[in-house]
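tool_call predict_complex ligand=adenosine monophosphate
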Amino acid sequence: MVKSVLISGIQPTGRLHIGNYLGALRNFVKLQNSDKYQCYFFVADYHSLTSLTIPFDLKQKQKEVIDTIRAYLAAGLDPKKSTLFLQSAVSAHTELAWILMSTITPVGELRRMTQFKEKSGFARRSVNLRKNMTKYPVIDYAALEATNVGLLTYPVLMAADILLYDTKFVPVGHDQLQHLELTRELARRFNKRFGKIFIEPKPLLTETPRLMSLNDPARKMSKSHPAGCLFLDDKPADIRKKIQRAVTDSKNKVQYDKKEANPAVSNLMRIYKELTNKSIREIEQEFSGKGYAEFKKALADVVVDALKVFREKKRTNESLMKVLKRGNVKAVSVATKKLTAVKKRIGLI
Ligand code: AMP
Ligand code: TRP
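tool_result ok
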């Protein structure tokens, strides 16, 4: 039986955090080891160009690419089982993106993407409307005008990444669901207009699709707010310090209630649950009658241990590049075949 294709990518921007791990990377490894799928995992280096730092730092950019593949291998992705590759090495990705953009992608749909709005000139401003503080969207036209087009077209490149491989499943975190819905829509639209050629992919989420920041339980843990992140390669002392300082709630009870009274502790409990395989009930029992300090100490021990593999730098940069080069060859061959079929479909010879 032919196994279904599964693909995902992570952007090499900044350092990976435990949200990336529990929301995506750890699941990549589980899915790979289930032996049920043909797996492709890539480093989304073209996507990461949309958030280059100013001033530009060449060495830093190269390090981020290398560190991402290093994290893939440290987490347990195995080049013998999965195709590991670099997005920019497979030119079919940007070529298909251009085709999708030019034929079936309205500007309006891309402008409505949450990520575009958040990162461009669409701000949300709080105002006092009839005594209620209300958030309403405003457009900062100067910022919008200055925003790179790549931020707008970002989801189309992501659709191309996925559709080129006849992908059925895409393991991602919650923040990528909207992009995946667009991918499905583009596949449907293209199939309808030019004849069936793409498969509509489905997302695969983990139990922690949206881990929250350590210092603000209302905000997603995100590389763009490093203060609330536990990074995979953080030193044990830093992990302990960050967990000790993590925001907690006023109840001083280790109880799960993510919406009401205990959103901050519930977030920490989810990390503990994922890394120990204990149920929330078991965790509540374990810490019943104990305060946050004791829970945080136990959590720090668990996190320090779980992230040990990411602190050991076993492989040289050269050996990591070799792994990618081998994967690139396979990805180029699969993606080019699909691109050729798509070109024919739209009358290009
Ligand atoms: P990125 O670093 O944006 O390329 O994200 C890599 C993967 O991690 C994507 O599948 C994201 O959806 C996932 N991810 C990012 N932040 C979080 C988070 N706070 N909780 C769970 N998953 C996340
Ligand atoms: N946009 C994704 C992120 O920021 C990364 C990504 C790019 C991706 N292309 C993809 C994920 C294709 C899954 C499939 O996390």
